[in-house]
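Entry for pyridoxal-5'-phosphate complex. Fields follow.
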Amino acid sequence: MNSSQFREASHAAIEEIIQYYDTLASRPVLSTVSPGYLRPLLPNGPPQTGESWPAIQSDIERVIMPGLTHWQSPNFMAFFPASSTFPSMLGEMYSAAFTAPAFNWLCSPAVTELETVVLDWLAGLFALPECFLSKGEGGGVIQGSASEAVVTVMVAARERIVQRRCGHLEEGEEKEQKMGEERIKLVALGGEHSHSSVQKAANIAGVRFRSVPAPKSSGFRVTAQSLRQKIEECKSKGIEPFFMGLTLGTTNTCAVDEFEEIVAVAKDYPDVWIHVDAAYAGAALALPEYQHLAAPFAAFDSFNTNMHKWLLTNFDASVLWVKQRRSLTDALSITPSYLRNEFSDSGLVTDYRDWQIPLGRRFRALKIWFVLRTYGVDGIQAHLRNTIKLGELFHSLVVSRPDLFTVVAGPAFALTVLTVNPEKRGAAKGARVTPASSPDPNHEAYLNDFTSDAESQYLANANTVTKEVYERINSGGEFFLTSTTMEGIFTIRVVSANPMAEEKYLRRVFEVLVETAEGVLTERE
Ligand code: PLP
């Protein structure tokens, strides 16, 4: 493809992308293809001679479109959003054009320097404590995903504690042996509702994993007491906690762990690296009304959030900050002669290869820079406030029908988690007395332990009905919702943080929930 063919092809592609966005709301959000749908649509191998762009482009509609789940659709209220916006797509385009696996500063100084500046801007936007800024001993780096961010800091934490135990020993086999013995004792901790990536990181880092309870009685939050208890329990068994993954906005319910109280635990156990995973809800720190949540981070070691969830930047861009950048470089820097250069040797530049798992890296700062400049702080805050308000609206609709629904969690960060009552107006059966002040008169029912026969029967029926409603809505094709189960309670999650979210879609999904729930309950009568 030469330049003039590229001009023509890219114009046609952009036109098609714009058309796609303009018609997103009217497309069924979920793909209906069956597994294996694609192979029969394609030849057995690549073409012997090259094809024209129009021939290739026509297969987007024929081959690809039927198999897409439309994450950008305003009817996508599942998981957490994976936002994409036009300025961020432009960033991707330039990044592809300038492709350079810019692992060292020298490989493309702009890639490194823009990343450092943009991460400092973001640290300011999120009101992160000063210790995370690059002007001190900390700094930020863009990782591909929250999962990568967590495994990266876990390895840094592992090496930090091993060095603290063995750093004084003379190099040699004896030291190596002692380091191995220390590593074998290590255990990483994560909250009961921390994302599975914390446990996965422990598997990758070759350490044990233990879960810190976060029961519904604590609002699914890790408390200082439960963390302290778990650390002590591990120590009493001769295993050494060295990492704790806290969460700001758990995947199940958007719960926020007890950060302020955990500061004292961090001080009592300085060998435990405390990381805050705020993959989704961290975006809310751009709003002054949420910034108090970040103040305790000064006592913790690292923090990450995904620009590619709620922050208008397309996948992939997970921003990670550490308080001591040396912890990363001490663990991850290995410099064979072919990577040496005078700038790296001078110590005056950042080589982000030492802050991550891969060597090469993409120019991701560009798309974040474009998004920040296009929307400005005002635009980003307006998007966050609008989607939070839509979540509150949806929640108010749900609690307006206590005969049909019970809110188990939320509204929190544009997420509401609900169940369908097993029979109309039967919500409080077998449950505790409901306080009149509760916004949802049925909510207290779910604080029960469901231990009596009546309670467990109630829960079993509620689960059956909720699951049926959930499955019918998703198979209807108009909306895509996801579910989760906590302490045996099957729930439906509705998230309104999509960049295209609007009141009419939230009102409509509520209407569909009501119609479906009424249909299912009537059939059971
Ligand atoms: N952490 C939390 C709280 C999440 O909700 C998710 C995904 O939804 C992740 C981590 C994983 O994110 P990633 O796909 O960027 O690894």
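NOTE: Residues 100-362 form a domain with the Aspartate Aminotransferase; domain 2 fold (CATH 3.40.640.10).
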